[in-house]
Amino acid sequence: MVLLAAAVCTKAGKAIVSRQFVEMTRTRIEGLLAAFPKLMNTGKQHTFVETESVRYVYQPLEKLYMVLITTKNSNILEDLETLRLFSRVIPEYCRVLEESEISEHCFDLIFAFDEIVALGYRENVNLAQIRTFTEMDSHEEKVFRAVRETQEREAKAEMRRKAKELQQARRDAERSGKKSPGFGGFGSSGMSSNNSATIITDALIEPEKPKVTAAPARPSGPSKALKLGARGKEVDDFVDKLKSEGENIILPSSGKRASEASKALPPPVNVERLLAMITMRPGVEPGMITLRVSDEKNGRIRVHINNNDKKGIQLQTHPNVDKKLFTADSVIGLKNTDKSFPLNNDVGVLKWRLQSTDESLIPLTINCWPSESSTGCDVNIEYELQEEGLELNDVIIAIPIPSGVGAPVIGDLDGEYRHDSRRNILEWSLPVIDVKNKTGSLEFSVAGQPSDFFPVNVSFVSKSSYCDMQITKVSQVDGDSPVRYSLETSLVVDKYEIL
């Protein structure tokens, strides 16, 4: 038997992956595969077809074909057995038998094909041996992984201990009236209710993309942690320590400091500081009161607001609103009292913004703790509601999953989950988060690296107002008689991403 080539092609004869086992030009193999569909007789279901020079042995793979091109004097029984082995190899590397998936794993398939056939002749191997050969399993690697696992378990225990210490320090600082460094602020909202005037307030929580820091892959004790922003001797000592542990450190050209070289290193994993890096983007307007007048008789009105905010929000009125009246009495009214608010048109009359470095102001904190294991990664994600007066609905925490690794194995779970294999996302769903359900966690295991599980995206809605600002009444400019109104309150997340 002489096997000339093995290929995966479309029904039109287009080659997706082709491995030649004898010397053949690209034009020659493309010509043979292009002629293959024309030789097939649709009336009969054969598994091979011959020409004057070669024989095609094939097997359908949904919309594709697995084709072996052999010489005419080869043993057809051996050809069919080899074909079956080739067909069983493909699903080992490809989740779906589609052209895009075959192209993505083309090199894996070629390496596997080379284990089946060498120089045109079939090797005496089975599927398990092919898998072992391509994985290149070794005892030394297992020993290395076992040592690394032990170090990671120790690092994980140390991280948990440090996290508890930081949380206790934060609570102590809050009790003593000090603010801990950390998070950006959040806006809030409110909305109104009646037939003639509608007042709407919206709030957007839009944290800046956080910067992620990470713990050293091989920590050697609590007293030797990496200090972010270190300069000079501290950085040099850290680089020397990595070298002594067997890490390959590439230093820049002579004349540059070792601290510059450290910038090229992967960021260390320090998940304890993950949330502390979320900040508000300057200029974001998270909160707004929008007024809509639906009856022209009620165009000349004033909106009375009770502002009990204690978070330090920054307020800004519309240019046509009487700022002195609002500052003195918390009443929204036009500067020119003879004019009316626009009819059937949404007008933003008051907006606010909150920027802060106080991490206690963030309503919902998310902690993600990925740690490598012998089978991939163990991921622990937990949430905590810090603003107990809020009720968050339809909360979805979306965690990316590496492609091609299958479904994650779920451990402890609060709420529900859904694995979207098309988008490679694990969605953790919680219908309600409130004071009765303020904490929860999700644990799962899947193949991958710690960096594969970021960014984590969070979304939710709420009918509660984050900032304590309420509309008490709406009255006429003349006579101060009350006006019926409707009120709606909406708190939404525009973007909440943890990198």
UniProtKB/TrEMBL annotation:
Residues 154-194, 210-229 are annotated as: Disordered. The keyword Repressor does not apply. Its main location: cytoplasm. GO terms for cellular component: COPI vesicle coat; Golgi membrane. Pfam families: Adap_comp_sub, Clat_adaptor_s. It is found in: Cytoplasm; Cytoplasmic vesicle, COPI-coated vesicle membrane; Golgi apparatus membrane. GO terms for biological process: endoplasmic reticulum to Golgi vesicle-mediated transport; Golgi localization; protein transport; retrograde vesicle-mediated transport, Golgi to endoplasmic reticulum. Keywords: Cytoplasm, Cytoplasmic vesicle, ER-Golgi transport, Golgi apparatus, Membrane, Protein transport, Transport. Residues 154-177 have a biased composition (Basic and acidic residues). Residues 258-499 form the MHD domain. It comes from the Eukaryota. It is a peripheral membrane protein. InterPro entries: AP2_Mu_C_sf, AP_mu_sigma_su, Coatomer_dsu, Longin-like_dom_sf, MHD. The coatomer is a cytosolic protein complex that binds to dilysine motifs and reversibly associates with Golgi non-clathrin-coated vesicles, which further mediate biosynthetic protein transport from the ER, via the Golgi up to the trans Golgi network. Coatomer complex is required for budding from Golgi membranes, and is essential for the retrograde Golgi-to-ER transport of dilysine-tagged proteins. Oligomeric complex that consists of at least the alpha, beta, beta', gamma, delta, epsilon and zeta subunits. Belongs to the adaptor complexes medium subunit family. Delta-COP subfamily. This is Coatomer subunit delta. The lineage of its organism: Eukaryota, Metazoa, Chordata, Craniata, Vertebrata.
